[in-house]
Write a structure and sequence with these properties.
The chain contains eleven helices and 14 strands. The relative contact order is 0.12. It is an alpha/beta fold. 46% of the residues lie in helices and 18% in strands.
Length: 358
């Protein structure tokens, strides 16, 4: 402590030592000040920080990729396509997501990316309305915003990469349910959540198709599984007990299909209760080949991630702008742009006859 030092050296016989020590302290203070100045000169504010330049002398575009959750195999497959596109385009892809679907955590991640100053954010929105405030803030900072899989409010993003039209997905699920039940009887629906924009939209289309074409079918229950297989199995078990005349369970979330399949299998109702839904071939192959699940409906998830990164890169580079009708996406070719929606294509049905190919 400086005061203790001065007191100890107050006597005449310490004067020489004090002078030496004081000079040393002054030199140290000057050096510290110079070092602090150099450090501050080299460090901008967090909101001004930008990624390092690449080896070619220019800054690589940085695309931030945000699925609904980290461990979901659906989004793992999407990220595989996103990584492929990033490598082809020579850009930097950063990835983060909540461990489980969590709108608040998605908002926190976006705030971090705004501070980092990324070039674009590509988000699958767990809660379309809830995430929109953070995405609008990103846009205000000059960050391009692309949504995929599940949309935000339109004013909160530049484009939505739509895996298939809402009507196409809803109608495909409902038509397949009717085909397997002969167009009559009770069925139930398992959803990922009651707040995700895509789940809400697909459910509306299922119910519209039901009302329009299948008067002898009845939707008896809708149960959320929070995008968790175990919870989907638990919900399906409850449905099987509560509705003894249930003829089919349809899931519009990827983990709902194998969860419901396991519940049907353990209840000894294979064949008696049909099982269909949106899902991945790898997660459902065994159940399909065993006859527990009849149909899995999906799009090519890897292509969805690939197209999303191409869209984000195009928005950053200025090659994708409002009013464009087409987007060229590398090896996948051209895609149609309808307004602010970029369309991946029609859903595909995986069945016992073809699922082994995928």
């Amino acid at each position: 402590d400086k005061n203790d030092f001065l007191a100890a050296c107050a006597s005449a016989d310490c004067a020489g030592q004090f002078t030496t020590e004081r000079n040393a302290m002054n030199r140290f203070a000057l050096t510290l000040a110079l070092l602090t100045g150099l450090l501050l000169a080299g460090c901008g504010k967090p909101s001004d920080s930008k990624p390092a330049a690449d080896s070619g002398g220019g800054k690589k575009p940085v695309i931030a990729f945000l699925p609904k959750s980290r461990g979901n195999a659906y989004f793992v497959s999407c990220k595989k396509g996103a990584d492929k596109a990033a490598a082809e385009l020579g850009l930097e892809l950063i990835f983060d997501a909540p461990s489980n679907p969590d709108p608040a955590k998605q908002n926190e991640i976006i705030e971090t990316w705004i501070t980092m100053g990324v070039d674009a954010i590509a988000a699958a929105c767990e809660n379309g309305e809830g995430i929109s405030t953070a995405l609008r803030k990103a846009k205000a900072k000059g960050i391009k915003v692309i949504t995929f899989d599940a949309d935000a409010l339109p004013d909160a993003r530049d484009f939505f990469v739509n895996q298939a039209t809402e009507q196409g997905i809803g109608y495909a699920v409902m038509d397949e349910a009717a085909r397997l039940t002969g167009g009559e009887g009770e069925f139930a629906l398992i959803v990922g959540s009651v707040t995700a924009a895509n789940q809400i939209a697909w459910r509306k289309q299922i119910e519209a198709r039901l009302a329009e074409k299948y008067p002898n079918m009845k939707l008896v229950a809708v149960r959320p599984c929070d995008d968790q297989k175990d919870k989907a199995q638990s919900e399906a078990t409850t449905l099987l007990s509560a509705y003894p005349n249930l003829k089919l369970i349809a899931s519009i979330t990827s983990l709902g299909v194998p969860g419901a399949a396991e519940a049907i299998k353990q209840a000894g109702k294979v064949g008696q209760v049909k099982n269909i839904g949106l899902g991945l071939p790898n997660e459902n192959r065994r159940y399909v080949l065993e006859g527990v699940t009849q149909t899995v409906i999906l799009w090519k998830t890897e292509d969805l991630g690939y197209l999303t990164v191409h869209a984000a890169n195009g928005a950053v580079a200025g090659t994708l702008k409002a009013g464009d009708k087409k987007l060229k996406a590398g090896a996948l070719g051209e895609f149609e742009v309808q307004g602010d929606n970029i369309l991946l294509g029609q859903p595909f049905s995986f069945t016992k006859e073809n699922i082994a190919q995928f």
